[in-house]
Amino acid sequence: MITPEYVRVMAVYNAEMNRRVYAAAARLDDAARRADRGAFWHSIHGTLSHLVWGDRVWMSRFDGWTRPDQPIRQSDTLFDAFDAMHAARLDADSAISAWAARVDAAWLAEDLVWFSGATRREQRRPKALLVTHFFNHQTHHRGQAHAMITAAGEATGDTDLPFILNFPLDNM
Known about the structure:
Shape: globular
CATH topology: Four Helix Bundle (Hemerythrin (Met), subunit A)
CATH architecture: Up-down Bundle
Helix content: 55-70%
CATH superfamily: dinb family like domain
Radius of gyration: 16 Å
Largest sheet: 2 strands, antiparallel
Structural class: mainly alpha
Number of helices: 7
Distance between the termini: 10 Å
Strand content: 5-15%
Strand order of the largest sheet: 1-2
């Protein structure tokens, strides 16, 4: 399904897009970041908070990170301060890149078994599928944040993967 190289490319893309989104969001004032804009997680702040929360949940399953205490329905309130959330985002992106560098084909070929709080039961799925979902989840909600940031008058720059990553995409 996917290769270790794909995981590494997506980790780099994720970090770069988060850098761009947070830079644009930082140019807005706190009220603009927290304004309810009708998105699933309501605001730019809430959406970015949910993304850090989601990354921590998935990485607790993939790499032993500490799982957030908040349930998913409170994931948009994980952080009070934008600066603290931004610092956590940078730390998470660095750790995700380090994890991606260690992922190998054998690990991707295994199943992951975990208890899902969302479904309230044990789940078993292929790790390759779950890693694909992990990066897709980031792209999905980051796209929502991007739309809200754009509507608020800021720009992130290009978001297209083939045009922002500057290294060969061999072996994908």
